[in-house]
Here is the input.
Amino acid sequence: MDAHANHNWFIEALTQSNTGLYQGDPGLYLTKDGNPIIRNYYPQVADDALESLDRVLRQNTKPGERNDNVVSPYATYAPDPDGPGYIGVDLAGWVYRVDETGKVTTIAGREVREEVIPLDYRDTSIDQQTLADHQVRWVDDFGHAPGHGHHGPSGADAVVPCAPDHIHEVPPMCNPHDIAVDPRDSKILYVADTDNHIITKIDMNLDPPKLSIYAGTKQTEGDDTTAGDVKFNRPTSITMTDDGTMYVADHGNNAIKVIAPDGTVSTVKTGLEGPFVVRLDSDGNIVFGENPTSRVKRLDLTSGAVTELADGHDSKWMWLDVDRKGNIGPVDDILYTTSTGGANNAHMFRVSKDGSRNDEFLPNTGTSGALNQGPANRSRDAHGHYPWVLTIDDDEGKILTHGFGNVGLRVVRLRNDQDPVASTYDHAAYGRGRNVFFSGSAFGFPFDARPSFTALRGESGHNLIGLPTFDELALMNDQSLTDYIRSGFGGSVPRPEITCADMDALIYYIRMNSLVAQSQPVAPGNSCAKDPVAPEVSEISYGWTENGFEISWNTDEETIGYIAHGVSEDLHRWSDIESAFSTEHTIYLDTLPEDGTEIFFTIFARDRNGNIVVTDSDSTVLDRTEFTQAVGAPEGILLHAMAILALMVARRRRTGLV
Here is the structure.
């Protein structure tokens, strides 16, 4: 199978029903005064290092089952040799395991407590100490310096990473960038503890896991390999050989260093340009990436020669891994990712061992990539939105990736014969369902007439406020799911107008973004009756009543609708959508202009099968002293659905609303 062809790759969402673009997942938080509030954003890193750290420490990460956990987009991973699964570390210093089901469990470090409602991350007047005292638990033993009693890692006892620490032998991890598993003992982890300027060792054979300084001097930067006085300057990455030899990207010193199994530290190569990530190829040589140049290079450990393999273009971030066993392509192919921010500036590349081939891997698919998972050639942001990291699992033949526009992990693997293929998907139904999900209403109704379903479930359909996830909803039968959606989809606003093709498409969208679609083909339903006849509107009347300006009409079958109105034929305002299907209709318009103003209006009515009628525009001069007057019914105009949509968009454009 050609590993360079996008259609031969398949995307699986791992920790959520799908990855949440721009972190739209709503969650429950507390204000400083203790009042609950729902937020559906996620604090991202910034160009300023201190501001980035503050934002990262405010992230509401948490362990839990698939769809009930949150992992930071700013994390790196190593395959778990006791897997399947992965071991990760995020910039806040949380070390955790992700298993093959998407379940996340804490190993060590800074864990946000599950049993408390976190404080509002947007309120920067809440200082880090207050935030940590409220919601942080330390899961490790990082020891106390001589002369300090052990009172337990809680409260004011080192709850804020990166602060000067004179209490503990090992400070809480500060902005760690990489993690490795000791090939001699899978219960021993090492972390590139970047802004503590050390390599931290985590011994999981003990309970709780014990942290110790493996190399370096805590919170002291420098460039020294002298025994007893070893210093690094922002080590960002580590990799290990089978005998326990460790190579370190000593980013701030523009060097690569080596730590022998006996702990001796020496410098392998200096004069580099910001080595940022280091990995080994099958020959035992070092492949490394530089930041911010994003160049990929190889260091021959025998000759000391450095060869440039790829120029990834200047970017704000880069990461790489090497396919040492060739389970996902040619042996020693290098996958690397860069991101500069901005539209279409997120990339992943595949480079041959000698650098002669440098192809973009899983490129942005643009408008053709509608899916959130499935065949890579039809997936949006297949490699993660602004890819932050990638990890090759040699044994499983998979790639783990996510982006800093996501809060979920994705697995990229070569497809198999049982996987659904692009031709089995109904992309028109998927797109229609996505539009209904985003608008919160049926096709043809004003986009902002109903609250968007994303307010409760984020742009991914995932939520952290206790509502059923897409995985759970996908297992409901069509009628139960239809009833649930029409009753409000977990919210307080019923949606009776979602029927027929719109309901079929929305249910299809939900199932396509669930675990169901990762293992079997999913087809949209067909609940529409064969009824191409539009409803007819009659007996229209309007005028002032004691309840306001009233417009009434009848239809020859049950319909649901609304009134479009305005002070010109642009009709730039909309009434509320009716609450139920009926043949007799009354809507009251509010916030109308003063008497003497001419207003225009038209009636929009839709039957249960999705047939739509829009009446000719009528007008009247407002006079609150008049009583209701009866008029003949304007001639109904049956418009094709696309024509209706075009008309509404055109009206909104003329009024500057879109």
User: Anything to note?
Assistant: The helical segments are 49-56, 128-135, 427-439, 454-457, 470-473, 478-486, 500-512, 641-654. The CA atoms of residues 28 and 38 lie 5 Å apart. The longest helix spans residues 641-654. The radius of gyration is 30 Å.
